[in-house]
Amino acid sequence: MTQTTSAPALTSADSIAADDVEGRLATLVSEHQSALLDYVSTLTRGDRAWAEDAVQETFVRAWRHIDRLYAALGSVRGWLMRVAHNVVMDGYRAAKGRPALAAVDDEGAEPTLDTSGETLTRVQVHGLLADLPEPHRVALFATFLEDRTAMDAANVLGIPVGTVKSRVYYGLRMLRSSIEGESLAA
Q: What secondary structure letter does DSSP report for 66?
């Protein structure tokens, strides 16, 4: 024995006329909007704006499928709730795909210093040091950059203290003349 479904088949007379679509949608909104908004607000953890957007998107989808939304074909509210649930879950999935935005608190924050001048100077100094003869460059590194006395530098380099002092003196003079030459050229 075959069993037939009890849902009546829709004929062309039962379908919604184009003029009545707005009335049917208005009826759906008035009957289901508050319950739908309450449900979606819990899904969005109280984010009212997101909940309202999700409900609006749900009713847009209901408008697209208005010909299927009859109690005889199934629960209209159940369909609306499922669509709203899917809209919210799509929002959560989309948020996972995007990196979170960090909140910026400009109040009380100290301005960062512009170190581009220091960086430029450092690059220029390294360039000038590279142009020095190696013995003078090594003596300057051993004394100034490694923060050693002439005596300590002489011990590390294995040369007399007087040689370290003269190389530092003449190395600084060469640096000065290079810097003055650049500033005159600029």
A: G
Residue type, 50: W
92 secondary structure, DSSP code: H
Do 35 and 77 meet the contact criterion of CB atoms below 8 Å apart? yes
Phi, psi of 128 (to 5 degrees): -65, -40
Q: Which two tokens stand for residue 109?
A: 């924050």
**82 touches 62 (CB < 8 A):** no
What is the tens place of the pLDDT at every residue in 23-40?
888 888 888 888 898 999
> How confident is the model over 52-72, as pLDDT tens digits?
999 999 888 888 888 877 777
Could you tell me the CA-to-CA distances from 162 to 149, 150, 154, 159, 175 in Å, in that order? 12, 8, 9, 8, 20
Nearest to residue 84, comparing CAs of 122, 116, 120, 42?
Answer: 42
Helices H, strands E: what count in the chain?
7, 0
**Distance linking the first and last C-alpha atoms of the chain:** 102
CA distance 33 to 1: 43
Tokens at residue 58, please? 């749900």
Angle between helices 76-97 and 21-43 (to 10 degrees): 50
Which of 33, 24, 41 is closest to 58 using CA atoms? 33
Single-letter residue type at 90:
D
